[in-house]
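Per reviewer request, we include the raw input and output of the structure prediction for the construct analysed in the revised manuscript.
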Amino acid sequence: MAVFKRLTKEQITRDYDHYALFMGIVPIYVGDAYGECRVAVRNWWPDWLLDLAEVISSLTPYDEWVIRLGNKIKN
């Protein structure tokens, strides 16, 4: 969980490029947005939010998961 097992600044700047929102509700970090697209829930937000968003997306007719990129993560 990102509430108890928070990422350090070094891990964030090394592994992730952007702040983003998953499905417009879950704040995440995104790494390699145009390739592998690694994601992690931002610090202080519970990890189960990604699971909840996945359940919501399975109940909608859309096949895509929308990730809205935000600001770049500065070193």
